[in-house]
Write a structure and sequence with these properties.
The chain is mainly alpha-helical. The longest helix is centred in the N-terminal third of the chain and has 30 residues. It is rod-shaped, with a radius of gyration of 52 Å.
Length: 551
């Protein structure tokens, strides 16, 4: 069978399938699209019966006109039919209907099949190519039946692919499962043509809302603009806009971490490196991959530091967290360390409270701290305990100044003029040295080998155990000076190694070392009480001096 030249027609059909068939789901959506002939029931060689009495020529002309009036007639058939009518002879009309029509239809059918190959799914493409390698009848069979069978296979594969895709949204997934359960070609085609576009838009808008709720300020602003726009704006945000906006948010987050004084050294170093690189990929990699690792490392370092400085309960809790998961470490840093530290703080202050050498103001402050919250007890251990002990130390020094000899009084007053550390130094070292000077000054003469005895008004004591000093003793110092002057005689009273006294004026010896921490707010209260005690002691000294002068 001799065919006309069709290269131009075939090339146009292959190069521009999208124009002719815009749907990407399948090129076989309509069996007979306009401009491309498909199989029909018209005779390939015998025209329809003409009216009674009509000649063969009239019948042929009527049949050709009917073919041209059919909207599904292909390009090649239409050109050949118009050419036969233009020639006008009975022979030309008969030649077209008996030979030329089938040849032209074969060309149109092959063009249609090539268009289907260009945009069809795998099964459709395979069946179409097999038909093109076959006969005229194979091509006709493909267009009439094979393309629809193959398209049903492609539709099923596309639905299964959507279900296997983790990015498929919930609404698309629900409709796809329903279509697949129904299983008919019509149900699958209806899902892909009618339901999929609407459900996909619904899922995309839902995804946009989720991104907006979890994103930073820039992402939220961009998502809000897209949500108020068209579906094309939503798609553009999901494909591009969210990443541009997220890069802005990532930079802001890295800068926030660097500005936070609580950020650990490992996180800080990695953040500075990412910010110096500056690319969106570097910032995202830091936040997604490096930040969790560096944050855990910093948390474990912080835990080790707390464990090294903590008491027994803190060390035990920290060790258990260190041997656990990162969640255990975080829980210790947020909660566990404070619970354990409260236990250690109670043990510390109760130990001080149990020491018989602890002064009255220290005891009073400890009891008040124990009645408070864990935070109040922590503040007391950190600062208040040292302050109230320093106040008791100053009371002790004022009492020593009242009862000591000239050297002792001079050294005591000099200590009271100084810092809390000077007071502490007097109690631990200076007191014993000054007392030895006083004892040497009253040593008996003319009896070699006779050992000096202690002053009758000052009992020998051991060196006091060091206590941390704190501000608050200037009032005590002034009161002692007013009462004793520079030449007052020593009074009576026992001295203590710990620098604390009872209400009777006797001082017990120290048997242990006291802690050197406390809370804010208690130092002034304790210092005032200490000043009052010292002022009372100074008045006693002044009274004794007046009675001595009168006698």
């Amino acid at each position: 069978m001799k065919l006309p030249k069709v290269s131009a027609v075939v090339a146009a059909a292959v190069l521009a399938p999208a124009v002719l068939f815009p749907s990407s789901a399948s090129a076989a959506d309509a069996p007979r699209p306009t401009g491309a002939s498909g199989p029909d029931n018209a005779s390939a060689g015998t025209p329809d019966a003409a009216p009674d009495g009509a000649s063969q020529e009239e019948q042929d002309r009527a049949e050709i006109r009917r073919i041209l009036a059919d909207a599904s007639t292909g390009v090649s058939v239409r050109e050949a039919a118009e050419k036969a009518l233009a020639a006008g002879t009975a022979a030309d009309l008969r030649q077209f209907l008996t030979v030329g029509l089938k040849d032209a239809r074969y060309i149109d059918y092959r063009v249609r099949t090539l268009q289907i190959v260009a945009v069809g799914g795998p099964a459709v493409q395979k069946a179409a190519k097999e038909a093109l390698r076959g006969s005229y009848e194979d091509v006709v069979k493909f267009l009439e039946q094979g393309q629809y069978t193959a398209r049903a296979a492609d539709d099923r594969a596309e639905v299964e692919r959507l279900l296997a895709d983790p990015e498929t949204g919930p609404r698309v997934r629900e409709a796809a499962q329903k279509a697949l359960a129904t299983g008919t070609p019509a149900a699958l085609r209806h899902f892909l043509e009618a339901e999929l576009p609407h459900r996909r838009e619904s899922d995309d808008r839902l995804k946009l809302v989720q991104i907006m709720s979890a994103g930073g300020r820039a992402v939220r602003d961009a998502a809000d603009a897209a949500m108020n726009g068209s579906y094309a704006d939503v798609v553009k945000f999901l494909k591009e806009g969210q990443y541009t906006a997220r890069a802005v948010d990532d930079r802001a987050e890295v800068e926030r971490l660097l500005a936070d004084p609580e950020t650990g050294p490992g996180v800080r170093e990695a953040a500075q490196k990412a910010l110096a690189t500056g690319t969106p990929a570097a910032l995202r990699h830091f936040l997604e991959a490096e930040l969790p690792v560096q944050r855990e490392h910093d948390a474990r370092v912080a835990l080790s530091q707390i464990m090294a400085k903590g008491g027994r309960a803190v060390r035990e809790a920290a060790n258990a967290a260190m041997n656990g998961s990162y969640a255990d470490v975080v829980k210790f840093l947020k909660e566990g360390q404070y619970t354990a530290r409260y236990e250690d703080d109670r043990v510390e202050v109760l130990k001080v409270l149990a020491d018989p050498q602890t002064g009255p103001h220290t005891r009073q402050a400890i009891q008040k701290a124990l009645d408070g919250t864990p935070a109040e007890l922590r503040r007391f251990v950190e600062s208040g305990l040292a302050a109230v002990r320093a106040s008791d130390n100053r009371v002790k020094v004022s009492q020593i100044a009242e009862t000591g000899g000239p050297a002792v009084r001079k050294a005591a007053l000099a200590a009271l003029d100084g810092t809390d550390q000077a007071v502490l130094a007097f109690l631990t070292e200076g007191w014993a040295k000054a007392r030895a000077e006083d004892e040497a000054a009253v040593k008996p003469e003319g009896k070699p080998g006779t050992e000096p005895t202690a002053r009758p008004t000052e009992q020998p004591v051991t060196a006091p155990v060091a206590q941390t000093a704190a501000p608050g003793g200037q009032a005590v110092q002034a009161a002692v000076r007013t009462a004793t002057g520079t030449g007052a005689t020593s009074g009576t009273g026992a001295t203590s190694a710990a620098g604390t006294t009872g209400s009777s004026g006797t001082v017990a010896r120290s048997g242990g070392q006291l802690a050197a921490t406390g809370t804010e707010g208690l130092g002034l209260e304790a210092g005032g009480a200490a000043a009052a005690v010292a002022a009372g002691a100074a008045l006693v000294v002044a009274s004794r001096r007046r009675r001595a002068d009168e006698s």
